[in-house]
């Protein structure tokens, strides 16, 4: 029953929009074309930022930098009460959602969901976002800000 209703949602929304446009005597085709043109322009303006983000992330993860940083930061993190098992997640979370999800999944398999590492990682995943993505997309494309100044540092502190 739920599957049938779910499969009818999109056609019902399209039908409702069509009926409303006809009733209000709006030119739906022109509005659609303007929206599609604006969406395409936005996509094209986002491509350089997204390409830079993907290439940089790939270089960062495949170079072994995450493992090296984990070794360097292990003692300092233990001293302040951060479990060393979540250091790869702490490093990758600001950089990439996909890499941090993979690190989170690996962490849960290794330590378990009810462990201290699993609980800390769950809080980190639920309360943070990928800073580089947010800054690159929202500052460069949507708003047009060229110099982000201290945005990354401020967001990382918060």
Would you kindly provide a written description of the structure presented here, covering whatever features stand out?
This protein is mostly helical and 158 residues long. The protein is built from eight helices and no strands. The protein is extended, with a radius of gyration of 22 Å. The protein starts with a helix and ends with a helix.
Identify the notable features of this structure and list them briefly.
0% strand, mainly alpha, 158 residues, single chain
The gist of it:
By secondary structure, the chain is mostly helical.
Beta strands, count: 0
Low-confidence stretches: none
Cα shape: extended
| Residue share in β-strands | under 5%
Strand-helix topology:
Elements lengths: L1 H23 L3 H35 L2 H16 L6 H6 L4 H15 L4 H12 L3 H13 L7 H7 L1
Helix pairs in contact: 2-7, 5-6
